[in-house]
């Protein structure tokens, strides 16, 4: 029988690279760890897969200076959603010319502030917003967001943003009348989009709008493909690995780009605004076990609950829609063995809020029976929307500090 000490093998664990494993092992307290080299590698891969598409990182997914700077050094810009994001991107070294204001929801004051900060490209989806842009960002370039159904995505974004294709024509014509530059169209197929079909449908809709605009003499110069590219390491709410068909998605997007160029009949640039795809799998949270308990619920059913130090309000905001892979580094199976003494548990965060939990009904996770308070746990593929979707300290649980690893200088750096 082997007597080797069990270790985590990054190569066998989706969402765990060697640099992440090293930084998680070194962490002695709770924190988010981000692997810059991994993020850069995913950016490079995306650029190869979609030649000709300029990347505008949706910074809401990970507004961390080091991430913004690393991507900017490689030529990326940002999709910003407010003047505060624009300012942060500028401080991190993203030129205003590579920053657009991608939020269709903007007050007059925010439009004027963005314009003062040098931003000259704005998303829109309504005549009211166009009127405000004409006043507060005169002469700006505007691109109109076309609504999508959101089907096939873990988070469809179908109602709040984007107009019907026919209205996009009116919006861009009005922009031209008001002295703005009608420059493009955009879509968002829904976040963590799991199907290639959604992209095909969205790009077909855009082709129709391009044709209609062409017949009215409105010539755009770009199409913004939006966000929605998936993370690869998530589990669904039941704990089953999600396997997004990434190669197929890229193939459909490439075909769609070529088709749109043909329909447009002239030069057409492309922009893409990935958020979670670039960062989710290159971030992981080092948290700890608050307690593993076993008790009967109101209906008399006994159940294990695993309470972690980190949950919906301090890093895992999306835990009600999916699950993350969990690694308990102090309770690894012996080499050559799987499992161990495991119990099915509901995983939950530390606060007094019952939403701070994985799905109770179908989301039981098999966890080591011997877990004790204080044991470390690694939450994988949690690099997206962790620092941004966190409360300031709900119930006294502070936002997580973070460490970046894979920095240009080497080593790891910590930030509160
Ligand atoms: C305008 C816009 N672009 C891009 C994104 C990034 O989306 P994702 O993280 O799904 O790539 C979002 C996210 O909400 C968005 O609102």
UniProtKB/TrEMBL annotation:
<dbReference type="InterPro" id="IPR000183">
    <property type="entry name" value="Orn/DAP/Arg_de-COase"/>
</dbReference>
<keyword id="KW-0456">Lyase</keyword>
<protein>
    <recommendedName>
        <fullName>ornithine decarboxylase</fullName>
        <ecNumber>4.1.1.17</ecNumber>
    </recommendedName>
</protein>
<keyword id="KW-0663">Pyridoxal phosphate</keyword>
<comment type="similarity">
    <text>Belongs to the Orn/Lys/Arg decarboxylase class-II family.</text>
</comment>
<dbReference type="InterPro" id="IPR022644">
    <property type="entry name" value="De-COase2_N"/>
</dbReference>
<dbReference type="InterPro" id="IPR029066">
    <property type="entry name" value="PLP-binding_barrel"/>
</dbReference>
<keyword id="KW-0210">Decarboxylase</keyword>
<dbReference type="InterPro" id="IPR022653">
    <property type="entry name" value="De-COase2_pyr-phos_BS"/>
</dbReference>
<comment type="pathway">
    <text>Amine and polyamine biosynthesis; putrescine biosynthesis via L-ornithine pathway; putrescine from L-ornithine: step 1/1.</text>
</comment>
<feature type="domain" description="Orn/DAP/Arg decarboxylase 2 N-terminal">
    <location>
        <begin position="37"/>
        <end position="280"/>
    </location>
</feature>
<dbReference type="InterPro" id="IPR002433">
    <property type="entry name" value="Orn_de-COase"/>
</dbReference>
<dbReference type="InterPro" id="IPR009006">
    <property type="entry name" value="Ala_racemase/Decarboxylase_C"/>
</dbReference>
<dbReference type="Pfam" id="PF02784">
    <property type="entry name" value="Orn_Arg_deC_N"/>
</dbReference>
């Amino acid at each position: 029988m082997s007597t080797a000490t069990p270790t985590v093998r990054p190569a066998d664990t989706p969402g765990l690279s060697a640099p992440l494993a090293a930084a998680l092992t070194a962490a002695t307290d709770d924190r988010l760890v981000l692997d810059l080299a991994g993020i850069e590698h995913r950016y490079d891969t995306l650029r190869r897969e979609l030649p000709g598409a300029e990347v505008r990182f949706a910074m809401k997914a990970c507004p961390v200076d080091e991430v913004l700077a690393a991507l900017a050094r490689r030529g990326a810009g940002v999709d910003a959603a407010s003047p505060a994001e624009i300012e942060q991107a500028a401080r991190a070294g993203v030129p205003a010319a590579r920053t657009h204001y991608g939020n269709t929801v903007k007050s007059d004051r925010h439009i004027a502030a963005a314009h003062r900060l040098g931003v000259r490209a704005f998303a829109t989806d309504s005549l009211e917003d166009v009127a405000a842009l004409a006043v507060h960002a005169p002469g700006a370039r505007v691109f109109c967001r076309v609504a999508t159904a959101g089907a096939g995505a873990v988070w469809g974004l179908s109602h709040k943003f984007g107009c019907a294709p026919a209205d996009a024509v009116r919006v861009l014509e009005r922009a031209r009348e008001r002295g703005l530059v009608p420059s493009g169209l955009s879509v968002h197929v829904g976040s963590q989009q799991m199907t290639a079909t959604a992209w095909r449908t969205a790009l077909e809709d855009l082709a129709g709008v391009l044709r209609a605009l062409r017949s009215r003499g409105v010539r755009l110069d770009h199409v913004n493909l939006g966000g929605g590219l998936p993370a690869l390491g998530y589990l669904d709410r039941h704990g089953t690995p999600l396997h997004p068909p990434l190669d197929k998605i890229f193939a459909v997007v490439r075909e769609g780009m070529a088709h749109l160029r043909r329909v447009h009949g002239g030069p057409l640039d492309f922009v893409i605004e990935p958020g979670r795809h670039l960062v989710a799998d290159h971030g992981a949270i080092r948290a700890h076990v608050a307690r593993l308990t076993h008790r009967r619920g109101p209906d008399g059913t006994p159940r294990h609950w695993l309470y972690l130090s980190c949950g919906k309000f301090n890093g895992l905001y999306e835990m009600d829609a999916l699950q993350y892979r969990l690694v308990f580094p102090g309770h690894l199976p012996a080499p050559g063995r799987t499992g161990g003494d495991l119990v099915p548990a509901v995983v939950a965060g530390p606060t007094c809020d019952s939403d701070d939990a994985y799905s109770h009904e179908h989301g039981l996770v098999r966890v080591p029976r011997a877990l004790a308070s204080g044991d470390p746990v690694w939450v994988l593929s949690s690099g997206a929307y962790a620092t941004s979707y966190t409360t300031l300290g709900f119930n006294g649980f502070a936002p997580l500090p973070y460490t970046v690893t894979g920095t240009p200088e080497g080593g790891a750096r910590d930030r509160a």
